Request: fold
Amino acid sequence: MTHIQPRPIVLLTDFGQQDAFTGILKGVIAAISPESNVIDLTHGVDPQDILQGAFLLAAACPYFPRGSVFCAIVDPGVGSDRKGICIQTRDYYFVGPDNGLLWKAASENRIKRIIHLTNPAYFLDSVSHTFQGRDIFAPVAAHISKGLEDIARLGKPLKKCVEYSLPDIQRTVDSLGLTIVHIDRFGNVTLNIEGTEFKQFVHNKRFSLAIMGTRINRIVTFYSQALAGELFLIESSSGYMEVALKNANAADRLGVTCRDKCILTVF
Amino acid sequence: MTHIQPRPIVLLTDFGQQDAFTGILKGVIAAISPESNVIDLTHGVDPQDILQGAFLLAAACPYFPRGSVFCAIVDPGVGSDRKGICIQTRDYYFVGPDNGLLWKAASENRIKRIIHLTNPAYFLDSVSHTFQGRDIFAPVAAHISKGLEDIARLGKPLKKCVEYSLPDIQRTVDSLGLTIVHIDRFGNVTLNIEGTEFKQFVHNKRFSLAIMGTRINRIVTFYSQALAGELFLIESSSGYMEVALKNANAADRLGVTCRDKCILTVF
Amino acid sequence: MTHIQPRPIVLLTDFGQQDAFTGILKGVIAAISPESNVIDLTHGVDPQDILQGAFLLAAACPYFPRGSVFCAIVDPGVGSDRKGICIQTRDYYFVGPDNGLLWKAASENRIKRIIHLTNPAYFLDSVSHTFQGRDIFAPVAAHISKGLEDIARLGKPLKKCVEYSLPDIQRTVDSLGLTIVHIDRFGNVTLNIEGTEFKQFVHNKRFSLAIMGTRINRIVTFYSQALAGELFLIESSSGYMEVALKNANAADRLGVTCRDKCILTVF
Reply:
């Protein structure tokens, strides 16, 4: 029997860093598959914010190697009858709660199979109602990492799972109603519109973004191109448009939070 | 000579994430035992809070594989004459200061030997008075991980070490005086009573938990079972009872902090 | 061909933990060099604070094994014409922006070569203007880790790079004007003077450190030696002098922040 390099396991959760939750996930994985490379994507999703988790997961996915097993846990419904699922896509495996968290990332990578996790042979011996990341998702991810070839063994096939996308853009001929989907550590404010769509919409016209009583009409290519104190738009590294402020925190300056709305007008 | 897989090293500290302390521990370990799998249990213990560190260490331990080496550092007495110790238990090794931090986890896993770390052959060349995690505990953990078979070589055997348990429960016939031992990222408030003891005490009677002027008399099995805005009790994933609030922060709502008291009454 | 253990990759950034940035770096590395040991030195450098990043990098470096590849990113000028560089020193490789971040650590380890990163064969296929950590620095570090022997292949040799040191000490015969260069999680306040220089200057005289209206004239060897509530000086584990407060937060007590000034007088 040849030695197979285990698939990397990538963790995304809303567990933060102050507790033992993420450490326990890693302990469970190490006990099942000691040689797996476990990578923290982030544990800083705002508590129970499925939208933000889905956005970060989808943005980061394409940078991970083929075969990666994403174990993603933002799970306000833990212990209820919400399902646990594994989605196999063209390049990846996704394990987590069936609450929409996995949808954007998985559907962008072509979904091949969805399995409802019902086979306790791949869980911890005892499954709690409060921490199924530990009891179900981490063990399942560890078994896939270790070499489980046929994920059908994890449970029953599902025709579909909960779908959940970024908030819709509200469109008129000369305006777009946008939503803030993420604010990063630097205070950059990410909107639910990709750079390509933004450029198509604005084209050669002038634009104005109205956000919390402030109007922004400048766009730059890189951060340090802007003037000090000047709010501007930029295509962020995730491909989405963001509002930023050179060497300072745009979100604090604007007083905005996730899910706040703004309006882009062309004229 | 056959190749032996190094034992995993598990880190728990109060170092936080903003400084270089945890990175330096990992550098020291990589220099001694480059192939060790180093797992962050948590670095978010409140500064110098031995009680909280002991609680999290004991809660997480059982999920790690046999042979794991726990390097735990919450060390207000660093540089004084407090000892550095290694405790070998049935399944694990614990390395850290002799201030009670290791006691709960180690004693729950049956202690076999306690060694006072006095052999500088296993330390860094120069030992400071301010960062013995770097100079003593990480190097010792790395040597154990790498395959040190007889921990007696690390120093002198001790008959006992500093014991330190969760605060006692104050008992009367129809009430229990309880203490908050941890507040997690979600604002869930963990009490010093395990689910099994809680159930025995309450049995078929009605109960009321008086905490900061609020009375709680509801218990649920999983979080989303509760009503919005309703404080409730639940057996947490650590096995201890906690006060929680559906999709919100119970600790903020109650205005409590670690070590605050509350009273459980049955009637 | 024999199997070569990849060089460890050590990450230092100002990305924090709440976003996907650090996870994406690790995904990129895993895709290029799956067996590399990736170590987080810290991601908690204050946003765009090159001084603090340079200080932490230099303090931690000597504890990492020879051959380590430091990928350090605090990069306010990303996307502008600031260069990306790789510095090879006696023991290490440093990869990051040419803005001074790498200078202190690299120059303390004897610089052998500096290469301007211009060869896109070692970058991601598409290079953005906003996240060159992902597109350039992580891929380059992964290639070095994997075994790139001649870093000249990464680009063009440079005679020098941007130098950047700690703030200068202002000297008179009986006083030193000092600067705060770091405040750690415990509230310990690090000054830009090493323990050896402090001792030479104070020698057998009495001293007084004037900092934000407070005078400190006590020095101790280890933290718990001090009295409760008493501010004191101590040689920190980085070798620099720091102001601390036993079991409490000196920075909060003093109301100081990074880059604040203070004066040390002998008499």
Observations:
- Residues 72 and 96 of chain A are 5 Å apart (CA to CA).
- Chain A has two domains: 9-157, 170-266.
